[in-house]
Amino acid sequence: MARDVIDMTPLQSRDELVAWFAAGEKPKDRFRIGTEHEKFPFTIARHEPLPYEGPRGIRALLEGMQMILGWEPIMEAGHIIGLVDVTKGGAISLEPGGQFELSGAPEETIHQTCSELQAHLAQLREVAAPLGIGFLGLGMAPTWTRTEMAVMPKGRYRIMTSYMPKVGRLGLDMMYRTCTVQTNLDFSSEADMVKKLRVSLALQPIATALFANSPFTEGKPNGFLSFRSEIWRDTDADRSGMLPWAFEPGMGYERWVDYALDVPMYFVKRGDRYIDVAGRSFRDLLDGKLAELPGERPTLSDWANHISTIFPEVRLKRYLEMRGSDAVPWRSLPSLPAFWVGLLYDDANLDAAWEIVKGWTAEERQMLRDEVPRLGFAATIAGRSVLALAREALALARAGLARRNRQDWMGRDETRYLAPLEQIAERGRTPAEELLDKFHGAWGGSVDPVFNEYAY
Known about the structure:
- This protein is of the alpha+beta class.
- It has helices at residues 14-22, 58-69, 110-131, 155-163, 171-177, 190-210, 227-232, 253-262, 282-286, 300-307, 335-344, 347-357, 362-375, 386-404, 419-427, 431-440, 450-453; strands at 33-43, 72-76, 79-84, 91-94, 100-103, 133-136, 180-185, 216-217, 220-221, 240-241, 267-270, 273-276, 311-312, 314-316, 320-326, 380-381, 384-385.
- Helix 6 (190-210) packs parallel to helix 13 and helix 11 (335-344) packs across helix 14 (386-404).
């Protein structure tokens, strides 16, 4: 999230929270595609993580990008922590360990998201190359220890860093040593939201396997294909997971509001000050009973910022976020929106995908979620392998994109962006397994070549 929401409209009731979600509904002709992707910056000379300060640090990188783009800087306590394009809505932000994120503008086609990505990377290289900085697209930092990671000067991250060890063993690894790619998609009604949420939750482990790309920790194989995904299993159960209740009767905006109200808060922001309320209840704030803010009721800012601290495999905001995938090399990044747009923005495919998953039980869905980080395509559900499901889902996505028929200037439709995933499914080996093959073969038991072969 590039910056905290600023909207001091007071909230008085639960109904207003429900209405906030409902306001995200859009007619289908206004559906857009948002892509967010993170990457690890590193020193080309020594393959080390970047500090924030210094002539070759994160701050210098952001200031250089500001000069090229002319975007508005996002400042906190005198530190530049991001940039925002006030015209189109895109932004650059920092994750806790300095992971560099582009939050793409809402685009009409995957062609546009791909062009946005290519422009971003070209601009980034223009600034980074003279500074001796490279970027790595993996789901987990392959060699660095947690203590080697820089700490970004953001108030919300200080609060999260203090709270995470209280609710899981791996929350700090999630914050400081992982990278992801996300796709954000729209819904037209409450019923449309519910169906898309259920389908994408059930199929999220399929995307996790297709993008599994984090098999190394501190220079050695870690025993997983997507250790980033495994990390989320021991981060904070109150705000993550597969949301089994979303498949129960009565699911809708109200049920999500009740869930969000029960997720412990991290902070409340007043002016430039972050007030640590970690573990406290938003229900108490809604009732004016929060001890740290006696008598105060929440604002829309408080609600939107709280929603941004909830991390299930699919997250509802005023759109749906697909959150289950590792970061990958840049050529594969447009494949994630292609996969989900082809499945969810085509009514026939949404129905077909629901037919695939509707008979799965909550226990089966959870077991699949638990096994995919380790087994990848070999995991099974209801007698079917993830590889078979991935091939079926990709075939549906291709058909959906073909029916969309959004063509680029060369007359090519969006199906071409599925090619990297189709090649993975044809080989039947995840990106992580191919990395492990190189580690045990051509790389001679070293992870260091990844900084050359997989750098942006």
